[in-house]
Every structure is written in C-alpha cells, then in structure tokens.
Design brief:
Length: 456
Amino acid sequence: MLASNSDTICAIATPPGKGGVGIIRISGKQALPIARRISHKENLTPRLANYVTLFDPNGDAIDSALLIYFKGPHSFTGEDVVELQTHGSPVVLTMLLRVLTQYGARPALPGEYSKRAYLNDKIDLIQAEAIADLINASTESAALSAQRSLTGSFSTQINSFLENLINLRVFVEAAIDFPEEEIDFIGEHKVINKLTGLIADLAAIIQTARTGQLLQEGSTFALVGAPNAGKSSLLNCLAGVDRAIVTDIAGTTRDTLDTTVDISGMPVTFVDTAGLRETSDIVEKVGIERTLSAIEHADFVLFIVDGSVHSGRVSLEQLVPPLLADTLRQKPILGVINKSDKITGDALILEGIDSSVVISAKLGLNVDSLKDRICELVGLSTSYDATFSARERHLSQLNFALTFLQTGFEQLSYSGASELLAEDLRQAQTAMSQITGAFTSDDLLGEIFSNFCIGK
Ligand SMILES: Nc1nc2c(ncn2[C@@H]2O[C@H](COP(=O)(O)OP(=O)(O)OP(=O)(O)O)[C@@H](O)[C@H]2O)c(=O)[nH]1
Ligand SMILES: [Mg+2]
C-alpha cells in the first residue's frame, strides 16, 4: 500500500484548555531530528520516558517534559513518532507547536494520524473509524462496542466472511472457465448450500452491525401530540430533570427543546414540541411549524395523548388537525397514552397506530415499559455483549453485498445462470472489501491459482 505523505506533522493531542498534562505528538521522518533539536538531547532511547527540557530556537527553556520516542514502524502511525508530555498550559503548548513548525513540522489535519496509520497498514478502515467512534461515544455501551471494533472484532468477522465468499467464487469461476474438468457442482446443490450459508452469515453480521450503529449514532424521537397531552412532562420524566416548562395551560411549549437520554446503552434524543392545534396566535403558529420540522428530522414519533379525556377508538385526525396527521404518518409512530393515574373510563385505542403504551409521565408510572418499546421500535436487540460499533457506511455496504448474494441465489436456482452468479459474487466481494478498505482486484487471481491445480 502507498506510504502516506512524507512530511512531518505535529498537533496537540489533549483537549483545549488548562490541564495537569498537555500532550503534543509529532509523526514523520523528521520527528526524531526535531525532538533532538527541541530537547538539546541527542540520545533518545525508543519507548523510554526521557525527562527533558524543551527549548525555543534562542535557547530559552519553555518547559520541562517527558519525551517518548516510538521508532517506526512500531508506533501508532507506523512512522517515527515523538510524544511530548508537558504541563497542560495552553500557552506552553501553543509556543511548543510554533517551535515545532519552525523546525519543519506542519500542523496535522483532523484525523491525519489515524489516516497515516491506515495508509501504513497499522489498522484497517473499520479500526480507523472505531477510534473516532470511541472518542465520540456518548454511552458506556457505545464506548465498549467501539473498543471491540478497534481491537478487530468487526474486521475479523468481515474477513472470515470474505474468505468463505472468495472460496465460493473460486469454485464458481473454475467451473465456468474449465468445464472439461467436470466441476459440475450446480447439480450437487453444493453451491446452493454454500450460498445459503453465506446469506445467513451476512444477515447475522448485519443484525449485529445495526445494533452497533444504534449504540453509536443513537436515534431521535419527536414528542408530538395535542396541547396539554403531557409531552413536556414526559421529556422531563425521561431526562430525570425539569428541562421543559410544564403548566396546565394548553400551548405552554412554543419552541422545540431536546435532551439526550441513555436508554439501554443507546443515546436517544427526545425533542419536545409545541402541541398541534389550529391557532391564530402568531408565536404558537411558528412553534407548530417547528414541530413539523422536528417530525421531519426525527427517526420516530412518540405520539402522546391525554388518556383521561379520550376513550374508545380514536383516530389521529380526531386528536390533531388532519393536515398535520398526514405529516405524522410519514414516520414510525409509538402511541403513548398518558395520565394513567387519572384514567377512569374505557381504554383508549389509537386507530392506525400499531403499538401503544399506557403511562403516567407525572408519576413516572410504566416508563420502563415505554423504554422497552422504544428499543423494540428502533430494533435494538436486548443482548449486545458482542456488538461492535458500526456506521451507516458499513451497513450500506453490507446491504449491497446481501442484495448481490440474494440476486445470485435467484439467478442460480431459477435459471441455472452460473455466469450471472459469478458476477454477483464478485460485486458482493467488492462491496464487503470496501468496508475494511482492503480491496485489490488482484486478490481473486491469487486465490484461484493458489487453490487450484490447473495443470492437473
Ligand atoms: N395527572 C396527570 N397529569 C399530568 C400527567 N402528565 C402531565 N400532566 C399535567 O398535564 C398538564 C400539561 O402537561 P405538559 O407536560 O405541559 O403538556 P404538554 O403536552 O407539554 O403541553 P403543551 O406544551 O401545551 O403542548 C400539566 O398540568 C401536567 O402536570 C400525568 O401523567 N398525570
Ligand atoms: Mg409542552
């Protein structure tokens, strides 16, 4: 694989602001000469914490520091890396960075260390992405799943799947190219069985990856309903603090307000909105426009109804203006029948909404069931100990690959078209290889010649 840019990069690795320690990293060919120059120390033993003083070009001391030299390729980027651990003063760090650039390093671009690690084959694309996911994780489960991706759980699954896929390709391509060798597998159902196994394996990977993506990226629910239904009360109940204003005046909430809650390890953002009703009040009208926009941007809707004033079968149109009901139906909806503590009449059935849960937002009754339903609706599996973090990019490649395998299966079982199957398998391999970034078109050729004794 191509080596990364040959220039030497430097950056502050610790967050902005004051801290006990501040870390600067330097990576590239000039890392060691620059480290010698700034520390006035020639002999820097790799992987040893060297206690040094760092100097500016005039010979004035800037700070004392621990200097650790990682000799490439045994470093994060695969290049020579030097880490300077100084006092965590933003002024000191900025001065040092300036001196490093005077000595020939340039400020690193975002993600450039990980990019170099990838280009130098230290990590694959999944692992590079997992580093960012680990840093950005907003729940413990998200952090643990990113850690599993970083240590290779996801890559291992993709690679072992690819190995099986390539084995099948070798078989199919050989049967096409060398018919005289009588590799008549199609009649033996061998290929069909292998293909069915691959499809099942891929479906399982997709399921795990989907959970991983949910843990990482979370999902957004708009809290929607008529004024006074209890939307803001529910937001406060879920958040565990009084974020939104609650009063018994219909039309209290005007602007949208959101909060993110950890639900079974998944970050879920709830957006409180203005109650939907016909109104002539200008401020409330703007609020309702914002509600519509919140619905459009949300993944799901929690439709909240005051169960103490409605009973029997009720349609969305009876609860909110009909035009707004149409907008609502564009999203998957979970019904929330609120104020269970005040319900005396018949049970309320929300027409056209598949699933509802009865709660009291004010008293916090049955809110755990609501959370379970939220997980169900989102598709978060209840056990995800072995989940790795995944992204939309991975899921779309996995789904492409699945579609190719399914099409190939149909080509073969309905029309015996092994040439078409071969092409679908090739496309599936390309899609999968793009996940780890490992695709090279020479892969397959190498496999064919190493697995088959053509001259026989
Ligand atoms: N008894 C009872 N009252 C509730 C419950 N949930 C909310 N309320 C009351 O219902 C009234 C309206 O609650 P809000 O949470 O402000 O309702 P909303 O849907 O946000 O209303 P708007 O912002 O006007 O659209 C308040 O007086 C709440 O205390 C509940 O579970 N039980
Ligand atoms: Mg409100």
